From TrEMBL:
Keywords: Oxidoreductase. The lineage of its organism: Bacteria, Bacillati, Actinomycetota, Actinomycetes, Kitasatosporales. SUPFAM superfamilies: FMN-binding split barrel (SSF50475). This is Pyridoxamine 5'-phosphate oxidase. Gene3D superfamilies: Electron Transport, Fmn-binding Protein, Chain A (2.30.110.10). GO terms for cellular component: cytosol. It comes from Embleya scabrispora.
Length: 172
């Protein structure tokens, strides 16, 4: 599946005069290699909820898993809009990336197998899942549903030479 090319714009209001827009390929590399993401969802009563999690970039989207009884799962069932964030704690280097989109459950077992392989490839053998019945099955009988977040808008915050790049996808 080819990577859709987003519309790219540097926001000069929040960028150093010498800054340039970050190429989408740089953001994709960051999404593919980042070890930890922060998922922001909204509780049914409107309060925010943020939690760290592991995710893999595959087929133009971020994928993560959650147990059916977890707070993030309940939140996304009521409101699929979410944000996934990753970055560095350094002020003078790196790129922080914020992905906005909708979390869509996946149950197709061929897709789930590719995602399970991506988890094991990225995070190692402790993160190998068995795929059956449209879900991930882990050690100890844990079952997790898998969600896909295709980006609608992505922000990249460059540090060192400060910049704010926005990537928008045609579906928005």
């Amino acid at each position: 599946m080819s990577q859709p090319e987003p519309r790219t714009r540097l926001d000069a209001r929040y960028s150093h005069p010498d800054a340039e827009a970050v190429p989408w390929s740089v953001a994709v590399t960051r999404l593919a290699t980042a070890p930890v993401f922060w998922l922001s969802t909204v509780r049914p009563d409107g309060r925010p909820h943020v939690t760290p999690l592991l995710a893999v970039w595959l087929e133009n989207a971020l994928h993560f898993c959650t147990g059916a009884d977890e707070r993030k799962s309940h939140n996304l069932h009521a409101n699929a809009n979410c944000v996934l964030t990753t970055g560095d704690n350094a002020l003078d280097r790196g790129l922080d990336v914020v992905v906005e989109g909708r979390a869509v459950p996946l149950t197709d077992e061929s897709s789930l197998r590719r995602i399970a392989d991506a988890y094991a490839g990225k995070y190692g053998p402790d993160w190998r899942f068995e795929v059956r019945d449209g879900a991930f099955h882990g050690s100890g009988g844990n079952v997790a549903r898998v969600l896909r977040v295709a980006p609608t808008t992505v922000f990249g915050f460059g540090k060192g030479t400060y910049s704010q790049t926005r990537w928008r996808f045609d579906a928005v």
